[in-house]
# Entry
Amino acid sequence: MNEISFIAQKLISEHSLSKDEYALLIINRNPEISEMLLSAADKERRKIYSNKIFLRGLIEISNYCKNDCLYCGIRRGNVNCSRYRLTKEDILTCAEEGYSLGFRTFVLQGGEDGYYNDDRLCDIIDSLKTKYPECAVTLSLGERSYESYKRLFDSGADRYLLRHETADETHYGKLHPDSMSYKNRIECLYNLKEIGYQTGCGFMVGSPYQTAENIAADLKFIETFSPDMCGIGPFIPHKDTPFAAERAGTPELTCFLLSVIRLIKPNILLPSTTALGTIAPNGREKGILAGANVIMPNLSPVSVRKKYELYDNKICTGEESAQCRQCLETRIKSIGFEIVNDRGDIKFI
Ligand code: 5AD
Ligand code: FES
# Structure
């Protein structure tokens, strides 16, 4: 057996590699190795989740953001971004529609918008949980204080998504303005976990300046942090950002890493992202085949969908929620998987 097959085999049997081994695996991967990891990842996933795919209804509550991340289309510095904020009533209407379509998790996602202080968010979370006690509420609202995370959790929020973006501090500095820090990001993630949230981290594949060693650090971080969820998708340039002319990440490497992450943590909740669906025809289906088990369709009102544009050409921005639900049903069935209407919590084995 050559060195790369040996490393791949080690990942399959031990669910862990050294940082150097991850880097070697990434650099020397080939279609045969990818296929081997995909089939092992598929096996692990089926042992725990069978062919079931969980849905999360994404409600994009605000595209105001105080941050200026260099990659992001809703960065503060983008004067071409037309800003909006959903009201509590808008959010409840989206949830109502989602509920009737079978969604049992609602994800409130938004930029870091001061309007959404703890009082306003607690009120919304409380209303959602009172109306839909059997549903999970996930938040994806960026960096906040320990006290804030705690208050939101005590109001009933179940999960929190905060991508770490990159586990290399120097690389982090190249993607973010000086006002943001890698240390704070990681501290937020540990705070979320300590408070009791089901916590998700994640990163972009093929972000500017990213090296195989950086990705190896991301994988090592996933091993040690052991998140319940992990969001990865290709970087896609947005025309009104400093990274407009940068190359996008590839669907191939994204799918490869989905298989690797499934093997690192077999029970992880792993979305096949909209970014992956944007960059490749049937990208989300490919992500599921590679080991993902979650899809996060958009429940935002069609009137604001185009405004929540983190990257160019995002899919599903013209579709009504019911259309996406139908479309996904067909797509998922066509590859032999099945969407289930439940909260879709992580299964402990
Ligand atoms: N391409 C791909 N993903 C992006 N995100 C932000 N901007 C882009 C982009 N241009 C991701 C970030 C963020 C998540 C909400 O979306 O990883 O955490
Ligand atoms: Fe939105 Fe297919 S999932 S149109």
Observations:
- Residues 3-340 form a domain with the TIM Barrel fold (CATH 3.20.20.70).
- The pocket of FE2/S2 (inorganic) cluster (ligand 2) is lined by residues 297, 316, 319, 323-324, 327-328 (CB under 6 Å).
